[in-house]
Amino acid sequence: MVTISRSNAGALRYKSSQLRYSAVYITLTFLVLLFLNFYCSETSQQLFYRSKHTAMMDKVLLVSSALGEQEVLNTDTARASIEQLGNLKTARLVVTDETGRWIYDSLAEEAQTGFCLFPEVVQALEGNDVISIDYHDGVMVSRAAAPILSYNSLAGCAYILEYDADQGQLIRSLQYNILTVSLVLCYVVIFFSLIFARTFAGRLRQIMESMRIIREGNYDHKVSLKGRDEFSVLGSEFNALTAKLRQSEALQRQFISDASHELKTPLASIKLLSDSILQNDMDVDTLREFVADIGDEADRLTRMSEKLLSLTRFHPDVGSDCEITYFTPTVERVMRMLTTAAELSDVTLRVEIVTDSSILILEDDLYQIIFNLVENGIKYNVPGGSLTVRLIRQEDNAVLTVSDTGMGIPAESLDKIFDRFYRVDKARSRQTGGSGLGLSIVKEMVQRNRGTISAQSSDTAPTGTTFTLTFPVFDVEVEG
């Protein structure tokens, strides 16, 4: 019993496809060459036939014209006229009277008796010029007959038979050469078809094998295809895809690791506080303090879980389910919601809307983006500081900036603040309830709605951070 593995079975199926496509291509090529061979042979043969037709008709008309000048058409006058014409280079020349009786035959010394019933003669006695040409075994056989007219009346018929071996051999040689060239071309096509099919199959099989390796989880594998054809482009796209998969897997592992680490911290705190309550006798105030701490950790765990769910709910389709949204109402609503938090932190809120603009975005998305930025600006500000939200228009873009007078962000951290779970000051982030997910959520929501976000900051005087949002404006024309 022979066992074929899955990969071998796929290779065998692909090989059969390779041979099948090659066979179809070779068959089509063979049929085309066969048609061309037949067409060229017939065309060349017809050219020889036309040339022979003209020559034979000239000869038979010459003989019939000469015989038609005789007063009396008999054996002697016919022989005399033909001798005057000279050597006509014919295999046989026959002359009959108007009834078809033999008068003259170049192959017989004496006139034959009876009627000449050659088909060409019969048709010529009906007043027609007749010619027939046959090619057989390398010999061209030509027959021509024409009526003999004497004083505009039928006097007889002239018939010529001619064997042309030279032209027959020329036709045979030409057809043989055409057939030889066709066969050589067919062999060449078959040879190169198999080579091209094998090369095509090898390059495709290399990609299929790479796909199998990637399917098994080896994202470091790369396919190397030389050239500038579609396969090399496919190989480049395949390598780009595997790099993307490798990056995605690394991000997924990092995300799981970071999420596990971040979720483990509040859970450990809750476990530690609950064990302390169970193992120690506490007064009511201390117990209430421990329970409050457990509640705070539970709240932090809840916020973190909600933000993780927000990240997983993002749909990859850019600009799906959008609506026309103006900045001003959304900014004012965010400011109203965070006024109390700003007062508790002794932070002054300012709004500067130079030109209101409308963009294509869900209002809830815009609200969450601005809310997160303003909330961060309040959390990481200093007592007595300020936070300014400014909206301007630059050509076809709406630019919203959120600037605070807080502690600032170090230069080495600016490129990382949008990464998941990244926090500049972990101790301060835990005190303010930060999870390192807010800015990553903001960035993904901005990019999902065709926008861009950037941050500029300074950890030296004057301190502070400025976040800049840029969205393409969607102008609404109002009919007057």
Structure characterization notes:
This protein has 480 residues and is an alpha+beta fold. The protein folds into three domains: 8-172, Beta-Lactamase, CATH 3.30.450.20; 230-312, Signal transduction histidine kinase, dimerisation/phosphotransfer (DHp) domain (Helix Hairpins, Orthogonal Bundle); 324-472, Heat Shock Protein 90 (2-Layer Sandwich). Helices cover 55% and strands 18% of the residues. The chain is built from ten helices and twelve strands. It has helices at 6-68, 75-85, 119-124, 165-215, 230-279, 284-312, 327-344, 363-379, 426-432, 438-448, and strands at residues 92-97, 102-105, 130-136, 139-150, 153-164, 324-326, 348-353, 358-360, 386-394, 397-404, 452-458, 464-472. The strands form three sheets. It has a five-stranded antiparallel sheet. Strands 7-9-10-12-11 form a five-stranded mixed sheet, with helices on one face. Strand 1 (92-97) and strand 2 (102-105) form a beta hairpin. Helix 7 runs parallel beside helix 8 (363-379). The model is unreliable at 1-14, 315-319 and 426-433 (pLDDT under 50).
